[in-house]
């Protein structure tokens, strides 16, 4: 499907480029007249072909339920694809999509949960204790 999607994207891009050029030339030559029907149809067709190409070349979709996907990632862990970056790091697939944030998602970590986020309940308890103490430091 990747070759078909690439072909659709190439053809759609050529049609879109031609339609944009034609509309620019038409607007420059006839500033107060609407676009001709053939240019409008070419624009619509190019958008449809490009959309089909993008859909055909897109990777497999993830499950809609994030909890299901997160559980699968936690059970199976990250797997190497056998490809490497220029810096020598292995490209991993199906890993934690939010690992770059450095947060613990509560699955198998230190149990801290959403580390790095402001603990509203804890701050509320601290404030309540501060008010009961008389509001002094």
UniProtKB/TrEMBL annotation:
Example of a GO biological process term: protein folding in endoplasmic reticulum
Domain of life according to the entry: Eukaryota
A Pfam family hit: MMgT
Subcellular localization, as worded in the UniProt entry: Endomembrane system
Keyword Membrane attached: yes
Listed InterPro entries: EMC_subunit (IPR053279), MMgT (IPR018937)
Membrane-topology descriptor: Multi-pass membrane protein
Major location (coarse): membrane
Family in the record: Belongs to the membrane magnesium transporter (TC 1.A.67) family.
Name of the protein described by the UniProt record: Magnesium transporter
Source species: Karstenula rhodostoma CBS 690.94
């Amino acid at each position: 499907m990747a070759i078909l999607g690439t072909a659709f994207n190439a053809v759609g891009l050529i049609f879109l480029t031609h339609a944009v050029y034609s509309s620019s030339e038409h607007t420059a030559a006839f500033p107060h007249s609407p676009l001709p029907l053939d240019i409008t149809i070419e624009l619509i067709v190019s958008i449809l072909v490009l959309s089909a190409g993008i859909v055909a070349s897109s990777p497999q979709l993830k499950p809609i339920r994030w909890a299901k996907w997160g559980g699968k990632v936690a059970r199976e862990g990250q797997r190497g694809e056998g490809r490497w970056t220029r810096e020598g790091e292995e490209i991993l697939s199906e890993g934690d999509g939010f690992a770059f944030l450095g947060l613990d998602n509560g699955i198998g970590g230190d149990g801290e949960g959403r580390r790095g986020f402001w603990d509203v309940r804890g701050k509320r308890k601290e404030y309540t204790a501060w008010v009961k103490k008389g509001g002094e430091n």
